[in-house]
Amino acid sequence: MLSLLQEIDQEMFLGINRGLANPFFDAVMPYLRNRYFWMPLYLFLVVFLIGNYRKAGVGMIIAMFLTFGIADYSASSIIKPAFERLRPCNDPQLQPLMISRIACGTGYSMPSSHASNHFGIAVFLITLFYRRWRWILPLGLLWALSICFAQIYVGVHYPFDTMIGGILGSIIGYLVATVFLAVQTKKEWNTGD
Known about the structure:
It is built from six helices and no strands. The protein has 193 residues and is mainly α. The longest helix has 45 residues, at 39-83.
């Protein structure tokens, strides 16, 4: 069963990495998975949250960093060493079949830390603000999914890596946001309803 799942994962990986290859994706995808590319968004979030929610906004930023930290530590320091799955770009059997678009890196593949971190942040923000801005749900999920897709396209993660990372991050983001809202509700804070 495990070998069948790995075969399906490799086929999906090659379908994205090679099958969807085009000059536009070649130019854009390395940026989408680069954390520095998203710095203006992170800066906007800090300014927006503090500007609109003052003290509660500072609490949101701390909780968002906590979400990121828990998601990153869980994926990178606990789960990856337990599975020790090679990245596709480091797999000697897969290297001749795939297109490497960035430097591979030395870490393990399962789960994707990018996926857990960004789904964690997205679900955290969705949980906080969905009642006020329903559009945050598709926008947040599209943002996190685009980063996951880019990870597969450039050759550093399998689809199942990003799926498991996304599930992990979503759970963490939801739990941290729920705890934050429970604490803030006692202080009579809300998302702007």
